[in-house]
Amino acid sequence: MEINLLEMWAKMGLPVRAVVVVLFIQNLAVIAVIIERLVMIARSSAASRKFAAEAAAQQGPINAERLLSLAQSYPNSHLAEFLQKGLASFVELVARATASSVQPSSHVAPWSARRSRSAVTSIAS
User: Domain span at residue 91?
Assistant: First the structure.
């Protein structure tokens, strides 16, 4: 049995041809979205690796404001975006606690800094 697409097209009625055209257009759209997503993921991975390496290279204790500004300089990195949201919340809570003269307990901030450093370092390696 031989399948000839031109012959099939010639034997199709108008409604069937319309369905084939719509399905073909949808197929092209799906392929375009897949390619765009793959390119975006590749760019994000590269930016995240670069951000993680830069963040891990910081010396001394973690400075949340400095890490937040570094994360803001990587808008295409999903890792930087994730850390930016978390660090912004952390900085805001610390500022609010400082403004209300309620000091955060001494074991919370160092734990957060160690946790933040280990997360960034593990992603960088």
Answer: 13-124
